[in-house]
Amino acid sequence: MSSLTEKDRPIVQLLLSTGTCPRCIFRFCCMGSQAPYKRPHKESMKELKEFLKKNPQKEDTVCIEVADPPCKRIRLENTEEQPDDLNENGVLKKIPLVNEDNTALESSAVKVCNVCLGILQEFCEVDFVKKVCQKVKSADYQFTSFVFSVSLPPQLSVRERAAWLLVKQEMGKLGLSLAKDDIVQLKEAYKWIIHPQLSEELGVPADGKSLFEVSVVFAHPETDEECHFLARACPDCFKPAKNKQSVFTRMAVIKALEKIKEEDFCKHFSCPPSSPKNCCVALEIQCSNGAVFVAGKYNKYSRNLPQTPWIIDGERKLESSVEELISEHLMAEFKADSFNFSSSGREDVDVRTLGNGRPFAVELVNPRRIHFTAEEMKGLQQTINDSSDKIQVRDLQLVTRSAIGHMKEGEEEKTKTYSALVWTDKAIQKEDIAFLDDLKELKLDQKTPLRVLHRRPLAVRQRVIHTMKSEYIDEHHFRLRLRTQAGTYIKEFVHGDFGRTKPNIGSLLNRTADILELDVESVDVDWPPALDN
């Protein structure tokens, strides 16, 4: 115990006598070395006793007094009776810390710690580590490292504050000080102990940047009871929130502790913190993988297939969608919980997407499998393509989250090429439509189309038709190929949408025009990178 010095002696004596475990004592002694925390509990307790026995000015009893407060129990019950550990003035009696038989030390070794409530005791033992690892292994995740997170009961902050105020008072009598921020955080100490054990059992290193997370949620049955005085003292810190079973969240408790005065705290909560009735329980042991992103380009060959599920007033209109035909296979192979589909624009249900296809990306949430070779991705692509004649995908590959930004970058500055089959009410000849080929950089004012007004805000958007090329078919039909600014409503440019798009093909030809078919021939977004498929 060479890292403990003479100035730590009063802290060790004080906390051992009040039921604090050795590892919490190390924290209050500001021990930044990890080694002492990793020692077995019994060994640490033995060394602490030996450290105290070396006291050159050995005394039978070391005493503390706490000015004021009657203990929490008496205040809550509002009774006239005095507990055994208070004198007639409501002041804590002298507490024997170390006697000749070391009985105080012996009893503290078997009790649940009054500060960490057992977190740094039984939950650091091999049995619990194996329990966590069994949960991880049974979840069947692929991972090469892990990050460990822990959620602690909120009242641990209250108990730590009580212990600190006690130590602070005793140190002050000796002309010494202990800043709260100097105390080693419980979570940090716990991870020092647990990380090497988990790493050895799982066979992979702990890494703070790992996408695979192992989390443990600890709870305690007396949380509300022990935090209730804070709600009375600082009611504005505790407000009911959705999805929260209790108002006593960790952040709310910390906020209240920052506001309450030390003297008010001591009036309502026992200093030192009382021995707990129960140990903490591990409420949940969970695993999760960070999202994996898959990108590619898709062609849509059906005129009866929406890009995403088509649901109106809760009723599904068509049986499938581009999103589902692609993502259902990715979900199965990556063993993910859910997915999020995005693309560079979208086409209507009756519009085909041809050419090199439309870029898309799928976020796979909490996947169990994350490692795929290029050959396996090629096989997955083939599986998707074999499953339906309505779509085909190409350039299927794993990408990073940040890379998806390329798909959306400058989306409105990109160009798209379309092919439209146009009908006119009045007969036309080749020369009637030839002038369209000479129109360049035609500027449009497009008021939000009536067909999308239920889901898009009303606005007038300026768009540009860069070039057009007409192909005469017969007196009432011609094909029009257009290269446009992304975001242009092509159907409305043809029929005018009751004058909401100006100019339009109808107004340019001075006759009624409508669109019979529309194909997207290219989306000029150079992402994701083309693969040699």
UniProtKB/TrEMBL annotation:
Domain Pus10-like C-terminal span(s) in chain numbering: 293-524
Record field: catalytic activity: uridine(54) in tRNA = pseudouridine(54) in tRNA; uridine(55) in tRNA = pseudouridine(55) in tRNA
EC category name: isomerase
Any one biological process term the GO annotation gives: tRNA pseudouridine synthesis
Subcellular location: Cytoplasm; Mitochondrion; Nucleus
GO molecular function: metal ion binding; RNA binding; tRNA pseudouridine(55) synthase activity
Keywords of this entry: Coiled coil, Cytoplasm, Isomerase, Metal-binding, Mitochondrion, Nucleus, tRNA processing, Zinc
Domain Pus10 N-terminal eukaryotes residues, every copy: 113-287
Pfam family of the protein (one): Pus10_N_euk
Alphabetical list of SUPFAM superfamilies matching this protein: Pseudouridine synthase
GO CC terms, sorted: mitochondrion; nucleus
Main subcellular location: cytoplasm
Source organism superkingdom: Eukaryota
Family: Belongs to the pseudouridine synthase Pus10 family.
Protein name according to UniProt: tRNA pseudouridine synthase Pus10
Organism: Nothoprocta pentlandii
